[in-house]
Design brief:
The structure holds 2 protein chains of 2 kinds. Chain A is mostly helical. Chain A contains 14 helices and 2 strands. Chain B has a single domain, classed as Rossmann fold. The chains are: A mainly alpha, B alpha/beta. Chains A and B meet through helix 9, helix 10 and helix 14 of A and helix 2, helix 4 and helix 7 of B.
Chain lengths: 322, 323
């Protein structure tokens, strides 16, 4: 078990290094930060000075080495746009994105999995048919359209929920939480729904397909022939056998929700990392973009590790092979 | 009779009309008796077994006839009632032991949940009994292996576990659907011997579905031969094997290679079994039958006394005897 975790971590290292190299390459190939940071009437000497200050006169591998060293300490330099440490910017924005992402993920799993089970077991009932048709809409509706529709109906016309921002937040240490205030919770509803709908319909359809597959197997038939209750068969024997693919996809989805909340955050002006990223792209703010890239790859690596550990718990056949 | 099947008819509604998969199936099984059911693929052997335990694959359904267990109808029971019969009074063994056990649960857990579904047992009692059953079916070091997962057993061992699962709630009847087909020949004999021994000890009747005449000859008390969804001959195993009365049964027996002499060419039955949507009127075997005559093509024979068995063949229709 421990050996498995360590080997997985070692495998993750090259992935992170490659991503680091890509984000580092951004500095060299995208835009000219020096030109961006200097004022118009700066002299050539000012320019030389700044280049030396930023370490841009060194060979690229030295720069890369420094970059990795700094990144390991959570140090990503100054934002070109805001002239503040990137790490502070991200730490400030991360809680908003993470709260949004986990709410959306919780919604996805808590609604999507039961719906998938239901439509898998009662595949021919009209409720299932309606749900599946609606889920098609969910799969095919672009996120930004959905977000704007929700704003139009619930914020503009009904006026029940705010259309942008995060509401009031409470500071707990460095973490700013919107989950503890009424306005924070209200502000969370629409973006979370927007972010969850696509993932939810996807997970519903996945669980359904897996359930249909598993319910056809011999061991389910045998479980019925042994006289087990429907509940034990559907929720014990069948559901557990659908879990491995569902965990895989759910893990990827969680990563996707965190990383690509960009559209939702933009639509709702949500002060999270995705919104920060979009603003940074507009301003060619390389340090922020690089840090964001690295952070997201780290998120995926961690989630995949978690997914692998869950496999390990669910399926005894995988345990034997280690 | 422990189990009685009367005029059972199973239909599959399809887009191009209703297919009759089983028609006019009637037979009985006495307590402790082993009834073999043979026939080629698609004859309806497995489906008869599935109909008895109430696990026909939809859209298949019982369209007529009755199934009685100790005189009580079980073919029209609500699901919850039928569930109490499955496992508890009628057990089942399936063909492929590699796929009949849930890969994610230990064999101990599967035994315990089966017993606890039917018998009022505490966890500790159920576990104790589970170990007992594993010993009964010949799993070495049962007490240690109870927490093992199915993939940690070989095919033969898994079929032993399946047999333990089928027997653990002490049913009166086991429907064994090709229990040895997926196993090595050397293991087949062991499994059959085990099944036979346990059935005798528990006084459990067995409906043994197979296409292996060797297994039937060795194990069964009586045998039913199926063809195109009907029973065409039924009787004591010795009589059916040695003195088959239906031309199809005779053809089947003749196509078994003899061990005591050399033959250049095995006997075979010309043609193939008709599809369900193209069963000829009259006797379904008539197009392939070497003894066919006019009556066979027009009217369908029911089972009638023939020698010491019952055969559905007009050759045995004695003048004056009731048809």
């Amino acid at each position: 078990m421990v050996a498995f975790v360590i080997s997985r971590l070692l495998q993750a290292l090259p992935v992170l290094l490659v991503v680091a190299l890509v984000s580092f390459a951004l500095f060299t190939f995208v835009g000219d930060p020096v030109a961006a940071m200097l004022s118009q009437d700066a002299t050539l000497a000012d320019r030389e000075n700044l280049i030396r200050l930023l370490g841009l006169d060194q060979p690229w591998y030295v720069q890369f080495w420094k970059f990795v060293g700094n990144a390991l300490q959570g140090e990503f330099g100054l934002s070109y746009r805001l002239s503040r440490p990137v790490s502070a910017l991200i730490a400030e924005r991360a809680p908003a994105t993470l709260e949004l992402a986990f709410c959306a993920a919780a919604m996805t799993l808590c609604i999507g999995v039961p719906l998938g089970i239901f439509t898998g077991i009662y595949k021919d009932s009209w409720v299932s048919r309606v749900l599946l048709t609606v889920s098609l809409v969910g799969v095919s509706l672009p996120i930004f359209v959905l977000g704007m529709l929700l704003i139009l109906v619930f914020a503009v016309q009904l006026g029940w929920l705010p259309s942008f921002g995060r509401g009031d937040t409470v500071q707990i240490g460095w973490w700013s939480s919107g989950l503890l205030t009424v306005s924070g919770l209200k502000a969370l509803i629409l973006p979370a729904i927007t972010l969850a709908v696509f993932q939810l319909t996807l997970i519903t359809r996945l669980v359904r397909a897996e359930m249909l597959e598993v319910l056809r197997t011999d061991y389910i038939k045998f479980a019925r022939a042994r006289g087990l209750s429907n509940r034990a068969i559907n929720f014990g024997h069948a559901l557990k056998n659908t879990l491995v693919p569902v965990i895989t996809i759910a893990g990827l989805q969680l990563g996707g929700i965190i990383a690509f909340a960009i559209v939702t955050e933009t639509v709702f002006q949500w002060p999270g990392m995705g919104f920060l990223f979009i603003q940074s792209v507009g301003a060619a703010d390389i340090p922020v973009m690089a840090a964001y890239l690295l952070l997201i790859s780290l998120v995926f690596v961690v989630i995949n590790l978690g997914v692998d550990l869950l496999y390990y718990l669910v399926d005894p056949r995988l345990r034997a092979q280690r | 009779m422990l189990l009685e099947v009367k005029d059972l008819r199973v239909e599959f509604p399809t887009r191009r009309g209703v297919l009759t998969a089983l028609n006019g199936i009637s037979f009985g099984i006495a307590p402790g008796e082993v009834l073999g059911v043979v026939g080629e693929s698609g004859a309806g052997k497995s489906m008869t077994g599935a109909a008895i335990i109430g696990l026909l694959e939809p859209p298949g359904r019982i369209a007529g006839g009755e199934i009685l267990l100790e005189g009580r109808r079980i073919d029209n029971l609500p699901l919850a009632e039928m569930r109490k019969i499955r496992g508890k009074r009628i057990g089942a063994i399936f063909q492929d032991p590699l796929t009949t056990l849930n890969p994610l649960y230990t064999i101990g857990r599967q035994l315990v949940e089966t017993m606890q579904a039917h018998l009022p047992l505490s966890d500790a009692e159920a576990k104790q009994r589970a170990i007992g059953w594993l010993e009964q079916v010949g799993i070495p070091a049962a007490a240690q292996r109870i927490d093992a997962y199915p993939h940690q057993f070989s095919g033969g061992m898994r079929q032993r576990v399946v047999i333990a699962l089928a027997l653990c709630a002490e049913p009166q009847l086991i429907v064994a659907d090709e229990p040895t087909t997926a196993l090595d020949v050397s293991i087949q004999a062991q499994i059959i011997a085990l099944l036979k021994r346990l059935a005798r000890e528990q006084r459990t009747a067995i409906m043994l579905v197979t296409h292996d005449m060797g297994v039937i000859a060795e194990t069964a008390d009586r045998v039913a031969v199926m063809y195109a969804g009907r029973i065409i001959e039924i009787g004591p195993v010795r009589q059916v094997v040695k003195h088959a009365q239906h031309p199809y049964t005779a053809g089947l027996m003749a196509s078994i290679p003899p061990l005591d002499r050399k033959v250049d060419r095995l006997a075979q039955i010309d043609g193939s079994m008709p599809r369900l949507n193209a069963i000829p009127p009259g006797c379904p075997f008539s197009p392939r039958c070497p003894h066919v005559f006019e009556r066979c093509r027009v009217s369908r024979p029911e089972l009638m006394p023939a020698g010491e068995t019952l055969a559905a063949c007009w050759l045995h229709d004695k003048p004056g005897a009731p048809a």
